[in-house]
Design a protein that fits this description.
CATH class of the largest domain: Mainly Alpha
Number of helices: 20
CATH architecture of the largest domain: Orthogonal Bundle
Largest sheet: 6 strands, mixed
Strand content: 5-15%
Number of strands: 13
Radius of gyration: 25 Å
Number of domains: 3
Shape: globular
Amino acid sequence: MQRRVITAVLGAAALGGVVALNACTPQRSALEQVLNSGELRVYTRYAPTTYYQSPEGPAGLEYELARSFADRLGVRLKLVVAENLEEIFAGLRKGRADLAAAGLTVTDQHQQHIRFAPAYQSITQQLIYRHNSTPRPRNLDELDQGHIEVVADSSHAEQLRQLQESHADLQWHENARTDSTELLTLVAENIVDYTVADSNEMAVNRRYFPELRIAFDISDPKNLAWAMPQSEDTSLYNEVEHFFEGLRESGELTHLIKQHYEYVRNYNYFSTPVFMHHVRSRMPNYRRLFKAAADQTGLDWRLIAAVSYQESHWDPLAVSPTGVRGLMMLTNRTASQLGVLDRTDPEESVQGGARYLQGLHKKFDAIPEDDRMWFSLAAYNVGFGHVRDVQKITRQRGGNPKKWTDVKANLPLLTQPKWYRQTRYGYARGNEPVKYVDNIRSYYDILRWHIRQDSPAPGNTLNSILAYSSPVL
């Protein structure tokens, strides 16, 4: 990552004047300094569990939390993307940022130098190995001198040092030049025998590395939290504490964690090798069509490709028991409305399906952008009317009809007479759109991982290849 640093050089007289002025000026509290500057400076790291650029803009659990906190304070959010842990901790000690939101584990070693805010998530540390090439160890004594590699100065290394007290033969190598996702790659490529990853990190990354398996947990549950400089001034810390208290009481914290992890947990990891085989063997035949449809609709071509794979596995002659057919599995009625004359024609099908998805997306204009596409995909599967019915059920049951996680939880109720008899459109197999959306989100994530976005969608200046580099947790 390239970073431009601008340094201002002050002469001795000017510096003395600054010191004298500061001596006469009352020191503002940390909170006052943030409010006065109009910005909140936050260290983070590029990772699918923290912060990345999506086609819709900045995304990630830590990003959303930091953005919400900045909004609460009424200031701008300024993200400082760090290269490694040392940069984050050293920068906090030197006052280069107000806090760090980077998926950091609360450890005894870190607490000697850093103040941690209230925990927002719990994880375990897991030993990771490659299936079919490395035997699965069931405990630390069965490692048989296998090569363990972890990120230097990480909480993983700290945990191994603690375990070494009771397992004297335990050995590992600390790599100062890589991050935990790169280490997962080395294990997947059979270069390293074992590494350690956090449970949330593994849940997200396992889709990209289907060869990897979890041997066992090497730690009890540990907390993730924001980090702040150690100081007698607690003004900003108190605001962070109140912020997380409010998120817990309102249920928003639970909603955000579900939004970022639930669909990943529902994914069938064992289908990834088949999907990647089709990416190599079938998708090249239709990639041009996906890109052309993206140019016309403004959708990401990889999203269109993910929908098409979920619908037909990229088989233009696919036919379902209900009579929908083609790459995008259009019904006769929908095809007619879209002007598609031959549903088995790949170009017509892709163009028609993309326009149909775009139209659904426009219909959900009242839904916040973070959730809007998931509503649109559910409607593509089960129908716009049924999704609107479930929004009403969600409101009736005290949920938020504009949040995908709340609506998703109520979609299966469309199979129950008690609920579907109250709706306009009646019965539907409500479990199907839940799995449908989860699968597409995972296929889309995998395509974004493996394939660079060649050009941004019209009106979208964020060319969003995701530089996935998981945080050292």
